[in-house]
Amino acid sequence: xxxxxxxxxxxxxxxxxxxxxxxxxxxxxxxxxxxxxxxxxxxxxxxxxxxxxxxxxxxxxxxxxxxxxxxxxxxxxxxxxxxxxxxxxxxxxxxxxxxxxxxxx
Amino acid sequence: xxxxxxxxxxxxxxxxxxxxxxxxxxxxxxxxxxxxxxxxxxxxxxxxxxxxxxxxxxxxxxxxxxxxxxxxxxxxxxxxxxxxxxxxxxxxxxxxxxxxxxxxxxxxxxxxxxxxxxxxxxxxxxxxxxxxxxxxxxxxxxxxxxxxxxxxxxxxxxxxxxxxxxxxxxxxxxxxxxxxxxxxxxxxxxxxxxxxxxxxxxxxxxxxxxxxxxxxxxxxxxxxxxxxxxxxxxxxxxxxxxxxxxxxxxxxxxxxxxxxxxxxxxxxxxxxxxxxxxxxxxxxxxxxxxxxxxxxxxxxxxxxxxxxxxxxxxxxxxxxxxxxxxxxxxxxxxxxxxxxxxxxxxxxxxxxxxxxxxxxxxxxxxxxxxxxxxxxxxxxxxxxxxxxxxxxxxxxxxxxxxxxxxxxxxxxxxxxxxxxxxxxxxxxxxxxxxxxxxxxxxxxxxxxxxxxxxxx
Lengths: 105, 456
Hints:
The complex is a heterodimer. By secondary structure, chain A is an alpha+beta fold.
């Protein structure tokens, strides 16, 4: 086992709908799918985003695409409707995820 | 061999590159079969802004970039029988169609057959209260007195009908983005409206095309981990679809960018929630069995989309006035820049606490903490930050400019009365729209297709 930054093994892209964020996570090498599935649980993602107060995190698994889709509720400070931040859509938040560390075989 | 249809994705949002279509048109001109050029230019709020513009001037309210998108490629498309479909009609599709007729006349071209798709506008169909009763995932409309815009997401049927009636160009307002590809495909292949797997495949093709370069290397690069060659001149996507709904994504020869499993899968999941149930008006798309294969340099085959019967209700976006967003910024540079920025923020906070206790605002220290943090993080992180070039940003929201003017004024006053070396104050007040989603019964959707004749 070794520790890596998520960004060393996966790609991620963020999208929004209202105050809900989706994070597409794609294994750069499909052989890492099982490691990422084990390490990057919805609980772990909730922890990474704790400062933004998610009320719910759901992970959808897409083994054929070696990818996962995470849906995080209420992390966009009200979303583009009411956020005072520069990134009301949360488009940059994929990089908050990618900075986290996981263990891989 | 089964016949093929070709669709170029020339724009993914209203502000997209207007020179992306050129290489796509050249590539389409070489292809044999039904060929379409698709422009997606209508984000959620873009339509509400267009609605406001139409109220000011009934001849406007379509995408202001329409001419820059269409004028450069209109002659070649008409000559090569490459048909065009776009939601650049925004709040006024007939006016957009008339503008395209004018462009054709100015260029000395034959009058194109232009169809407009309308019926997405719910104003006059449902009252504010009726819309509020149908709001989903929020209560923005409860108590709202007036709406700026209320538009249904129409599906692909009116677009297919328009092409069936011989349109060279189809101009729409609000339709679900992927319908801009599904409509042409249903027209080209004669798919039935209950052939769920093929409707799903056409929807997936549209989903891959609707963000332009986001599938061909745009929004992807993070060198050295994720390199994209020639990103500055990235080719936009060219989809080849067969009658069974197998999709190949490529791009015009000689363009930059990158298409492989990684770029395609990122886009497949873009703005998706449950991948087993992506709802559009014509079908429910299930992505869980989709496979992606690299079949050549910058060529990827996508197959396996599954479809389920179309949802009972349609989504509508309803926009209401949300006052103004006020932003003011000031820079600090050189030694102890973050420390002086922090002091400036504390001064503004301190003064407003006493003088306008109800005014809520946010502080960002750009260069230290802005995007990933909040106000609290920004203040904490400036304690020991060594950043030598930071920009302090304040933001507040109010019903009227008067409600937030004090924040703007306090930031400007930092010039003479704040920490040393403050510079470059900018103040902006931007009108704000808020949007709600509603689920509307299908009986309220009355899409209609009208052919716009060339002016005499």
